[in-house]
Design a protein that fits this description.
single chain; about 80 residues; transmembrane helix; mainly alpha; transmembrane; about 70% helix; 2 helices
Length: about 80
């Protein structure tokens, strides 16, 4: 899995999370630029942690118990 794969996963995760957080901010009623920037910052940080942990598990060949679709990479000696 190359860099493009991980970048696309990061962008997908962060954009979906940003949309969810923005909808939550708008549902509160009073939305400012600071609220939108906060939603953007949280989505970028949370996605970085999520994708970073997936990348780390992939490199270490550790299967994720909650990710049923993921297959652990096998290391050959």
């Amino acid at each position: 899995m190359g860099a493009g794969f991980w970048i696309s996963r990061y962008l997908l995760a962060s954009s979906i999370l940003f949309i969810i957080l923005t909808v939550v901010e708008y549902s509160k009623g009073t939305t400012s630029n600071a609220d939108i920037l906060s939603a953007l910052a949280w989505s970028l940080v949370a996605s970085a942690i999520f994708i970073g942990s997936k990348y780390w598990r992939h490199k270490k060949a550790i299967a994720c118990a909650t990710c049923s679709g993921d297959k652990a990479k096998t290391k050959s000696s």
